[in-house]
Amino acid sequence: MDNHVHLAHNVHLGKGCILTAAVTIAGSVNVGEYCIFAGHVGVAPHITIGAHSTLAAKTGVTKSLSGGKIYAGMPAREIREQHKRDALYSEVMKIKKTIKEFREVTKTHRKQRTISKSVSCTGVGLHTGVESTITFKPAPDNYGIQFSRTDIKGSPEIRADIEHVVDISRGTTIGQNGVKIHTVEHALAAVSGLRIDNVLIELTAKEAPVMDGSAKDFVDALQSVNFIEQKKDRHVLNISKPVVYSDSKKEIDIHVVPADSFRVTFLVEYPLPALGTQYEAIYNMEEDFARDVAPARTFCFLSEVEQLREKGLIKGGSLSNAVVILDRRIKNGEINHLRKLFGIQDKVIQGQNGILNGKLLRFHNEPVRHKTLDLIGDLALLGISIKGHVTAARSGHASNVEFVKMIRKEYKEQL
């Protein structure tokens, strides 16, 4: 068993099994004898893996596998005999590439960095419905990430800090001295995912614009300008011992363990055909974030819509900025209501893919990728980059925030 292997409750491993680095196995999994797990394999709960199975690197297992075969991909699929040699060679080349990229990242990002000039995006707030322009501005060494409300006299600034979180109702809100900024997680994820250390984020209203429901527009804007290396060294929290958050009633678990870079692994489970069990892993944040995480859009369930409205939320929600998962059938009498609610001009249909109006997903596992996006944004509230592997199962903003508080408490002398 190699470094950073995570085994949940009731996991049975047969004799002679080999588990390499960063393998994550959820609860109630039965693994036959002499199985080989390459690096960064993820296994969903209640799975049986037959004896003499080989799982290639970054394989995601979402259903039981028969023994004596080689599997790869997410979800795991059998690699036929004639492709085994090519697949193994490909895995070796991927490992070499990952090592090279990690060395390059380590070498070039020892200094803090900011952006070369200001960039802006305009849209409406998801929950408040107000029109808002967000502007990312260069900032000096050791400035960190701070927000500013330019619609308020004096443009008060609020540091992106876990102690400033004042609300977690379907998003993360920070506030200080009576001034609030709603739904900061996507902007924070964009900045953190691109490894930007110092930036001022100005807003013309009380909520960041939702754009298309993802962080893609923010990332595109930030990548349209140059990143400037600064004089001071980057501040990095080196995780030397695990921190564990667990909520047994809600079956939520979040762990961080030592690793040679910042990595995130996320698992979700929903009893719906459109979702099911989903898994996502990010191993090279700067290489993978913009392509694999930033475009993932926010989602909600149809049964939640009225409840969210009653709470004064999703005033700016529409099918252009959210994916609505159908967890129940649409009633005949509510079609006109849904059209008005989501600004639908055409027909309202119950999509065969389990999504309102059959909206196509950008990734087969887009929901868990968006959960990963939110987690990265909430982790940025620690105020320092993490060198460690974060593994989350079924977490949301509330648990993310509590987890960050636990990290701060555990490592308070280093922060």
Topology, element by element:
Layout: E1 6-7, E2 12-13, E3 18-19, E4 24-25, E5 30-31, E6 36-37, E7 42-43, E8 48-49, E9 54-55, E10 60-61, E11 70-72, E12 77-79, H1 84-108, E13 111-115, E14 119-124, E15 131-138, E16 145-149, E17 157-159, E18 165-167, E19 173-176, E20 179-181, H2 185-193, E21 199-203, H3 216-223, E22 227-233, E23 236-238, E24 243-247, E25 252-257, E26 263-270, E27 276-282, H4 285-293, E28 299-301, H5 305-310, E29 323-325, H6 335-342, H7 366-379, E30 385-387, E31 389-393, H8 397-410
Parallel strand pairs: 1-4, 2-5, 3-6, 4-7, 5-8, 6-9, 7-10, 9-11, 16-21, 23-30, 26-31, 28-29
Antiparallel strand pairs: 11-12, 13-22, 14-15, 15-21, 16-17, 18-19, 19-20, 24-25, 25-31, 26-27
Helix pairs in contact: 2-3, 2-7, 7-8
Which structural traits does this protein have?
five-stranded mixed sheet; alpha/beta; 8 helices; 415 residues; UDP N-Acetylglucosamine Acyltransferase, domain 1; Ribosomal Protein S5, domain 2; 28% strand
Question: What does it look like?
Answer:
The protein has 415 residues and is α/β, with parallel strands linked by helices. It is globular. Among the domains are: 6-106, UDP N-Acetylglucosamine Acyltransferase, domain 1 (3 Solenoid), CATH 2.160.10.10; 111-233, 2-Layer Sandwich (Ribosomal Protein S5, domain 2). It has 8 helices and 31 strands. The longest helix has 25 residues, at 84-108. α2 packs across α7 and α7 runs parallel beside α8. The protein has helices at 84-108, 185-193, 216-223, 285-293, 305-310, 335-342, 366-379, 397-410, and strands spanning 6-7, 12-13, 18-19, 24-25, 30-31, 36-37, 42-43, 48-49, 54-55, 60-61, 70-72, 77-79, 111-115, 119-124, 131-138, 145-149, 157-159, 165-167, 173-176, 179-181, 199-203, 227-233, 236-238, 243-247, 252-257, 263-270, 276-282, 299-301, 323-325, 385-387, 389-393.
